[in-house]
């Protein structure tokens, strides 16, 4: 009983430190968060909106999950589909949170998320995989919904997607491919405060899709000035490596890809280095959709962001530049806030698009790992494709990479690691079939026969990564041992202090009874 108390106390202290103070992790109602009414409605299609009226229109809002209902739905999914999912925190708390949740599952309700909104609502994330929470040499995909508060369709569809995958695992080959070969991460609502206010911006009325550092205008590059929701996404991408992602919006029907803006601020096509790959990914979504590819406004149902209308400080471009993540902006309904009765139809129109987009991570592209020839250790390094000015990093621990490319073409891929000889190989990328290329690199040797990697930090990094991998693999066992040892140290310290106090206290007066 004492051990459980100490563990619970440690968990409580950790969360107080992590959250900057105590707050209840139980389900919170809208009133608890300062939202007096969750029945406001958004307007129709507007690309850029300012302050909106707060007059309730319950006929439009009825049928959508409130934030409290969304929270319950996420937690319920985690319990119902725990065999292929978990509700998780940022990676540096991933294993410890998993330990505490598993140890006390069903006894306490621990609330953990990647961050919080301005008003303190958790940003819940669902991870779906056959080995959730474990690092594997597999690509990762993330969906983000409700970036704009008045575009709630995405948050509804993402819960439907998660549950559909859970219900059809081991029944549908496409679902099996996704669960077994991809780590899918779902953030249903990035802007729960904006949803409650039924407006585009967050509680500070800031458009979160204009709040990221921008490649063309560095005036907003001060990360400390970012909104908490934006900072949560940025930290998330620094801690976890995603191959591709998509954010779900409303107000149009099109798959949008980088660049989202240009230096001259004009409305012109502005291609990024992977323009062909992005067009391919956007087309997968559009062609799998019921009618997106039939658009009369956008050819093939896809568009370059800058050619549509320039967006500065957008999440899409920041992902590609800083996160090594190929992100699309998906406009999935003409109406920003359609009647809830339309949600089943919108879901059916988008279901195959969402599934095929995630599955494309393993159906195409070049994948592999990088190893050292002298030790066999994984080597974290860089992957480049000849003719494309973009670099993909391998993972730090397993040194795996996942490079998305347009199929039906010939490529030359190169692996580079400091202190090792770079290697390149050519391959033909088939349609509907990914290519696997592993690299085994030889250490560079100086003229006097000394291994050059010995004078750089590469070997040390590799050893540390190997240790980190071993530690991560046995983390739960180590954590239990650490808790037990800490508890024993606590008891020992308490015993020593007690003995010292006894020694320092004055001797009792002796009473002589005659």
Automatic annotation (TrEMBL):
Q: Name one GO cellular component term.
A: extracellular space
Keywords in alphabetical order:
Carboxypeptidase, Glycoprotein, Hydrolase, Membrane, Metal-binding, Protease, Signal, Transmembrane, Transmembrane helix, Zinc
InterPro entries linked: CarboxyPept-like_regulatory, CARBOXYPEPT_ZN_1, CARBOXYPEPT_ZN_2, Peptidase_M14, Peptidase_M14_domain
Q: Does the keyword Glycoprotein apply?
A: yes
As cofactor, the record names:
Zn(2+)
Which part of the chain is the Peptidase M14 domain?
63-361
Matching entries from PROSITE patterns are given as: CARBOXYPEPT_ZN_1, CARBOXYPEPT_ZN_2, PEPTIDASE_M14
Q: Which Pfam families does this entry report, sorted A to Z?
A: Peptidase_M14
Output one GO MF annotation.
zinc ion binding
* GO biological process, any: peptide metabolic process
Q: Does the keyword Chaperone apply?
A: no
Signal sequence span per UniProt?
Answer: 1-18
Catalytic residues identified in the record: 331
* Membrane-traversing stretches: 469-492
Q: Which domain of life is it from?
A: Eukaryota
User: According to its UniProt record, which protein family does this protein belong to?
Assistant: Belongs to the peptidase M14 family.
| The protein, known as | Peptidase M14 domain-containing protein
Natural source organism: Gossypium anomalum
